[in-house]
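Title: Comparing notes on inverse folding

I've been comparing how different people in this forum approach sequence design from structure. To keep things fair, I'm posting one structure and asking everyone to reply with a full sequence. Here's the target:
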């Protein structure tokens, strides 16, 4: 997975871009029978149909992307810019997830993670350039990756605890997925 954190003109985060590149086995499964015109390759319209289907079907799962601001679940809109690419035997699905309300990372702790709470799909961050900032990024904004120790007493079984249509607050502390924390310095006024 790669992510693009987008900052609006006011320096607040207004969207998270997500890009998943699937392994060769799932890629083959997902694209089997997709070559509708039988020309031996996956054309852009065929891949776009797949991307649109994924974007529509992932709604009930919260797009496997969970965002928190100040420890509370942040609401998102429908994904935009859904796109699928098939290259060197691997399928990549990307989309942009707009936040219902932009979040200033200097005013509220902003964290996000992408994971499948049913444990069916394991989503891992790529080794380099896993997170990039786009848009009007404020000077001094950074990100850090962390993982929660879910072996502690009382850790939740996500398959039973997460309601996909409305994630519970503090859902990120119940997963062993890689969590990205975004921080920005406060804006100085004179």
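Reply #1:
Here's my take.
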């Amino acid at each position: 997975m790669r992510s693009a954190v987008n900052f609006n003109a006011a320096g607040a985060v207004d969207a998270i871009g997500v890009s998943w590149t699937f392994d060769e086995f799932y890629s083959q499964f997902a694209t089997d029978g997709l070559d509708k015109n039988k020309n031996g390759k996956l054309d852009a319209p065929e891949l776009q149909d797949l991307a649109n289907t994924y974007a529509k079907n992932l709604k009930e799962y919260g797009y496997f992307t969970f965002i928190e601001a100040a420890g509370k679940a942040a609401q998102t809109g429908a994904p935009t810019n859904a796109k699928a690419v098939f290259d060197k035997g691997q399928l990549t699905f990307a989309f942009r997830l707009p936040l219902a309300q932009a979040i200033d990372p200097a005013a509220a702790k902003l964290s996000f993670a992408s994971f499948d709470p049913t444990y069916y799909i394991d989503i891992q961050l790529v080794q380099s350039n896993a997170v990039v900032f786009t848009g009007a990024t404020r000077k001094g904004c950074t990100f850090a990756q962390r993982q929660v120790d879910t072996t502690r007493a009382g850790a939740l079984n996500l398959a039973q605890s997460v309601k996909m249509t409305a994630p519970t607050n503090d859902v990120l502390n119940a997963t062993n997925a890689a969590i990205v924390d975004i921080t920005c310095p406060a804006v100085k006024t004179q």
